[in-house]
Prior knowledge:
By secondary structure, this protein is mainly α. It folds into 2 domains: 3-49, no CATH class; 60-90. Helix content is 54%, strand content 0%. It is built from 4 helices and no strands. The radius of gyration is 20 Å and the shape is elongated.
Amino acid sequence: MTALSVMQWVDRLPNGPSSTAGARNVISKLLLLAMPWECIPVARNPMELVKGSTKRKGNLTIVTPAQSRNLVKSLPEPYKLILLVTGCVA
């Protein structure tokens, strides 16, 4: 596994920047854990060379209170509860 091959793989991911950064971080952690267990040679983690942006690609859509109420009314459980909880936390 080389940094270049990982960068190319990350660029092809269809997910958003935050998910892509998460994938990159998981691979980095796996490589760090593999070294002490001698699964791979102890060396510089190639993921240190893989940089990427975690900035959002698109704009956020602001939902009005009326739109939110209509959405909650139209959803079945458990999605209604999930929307209500995430709306209160956000």
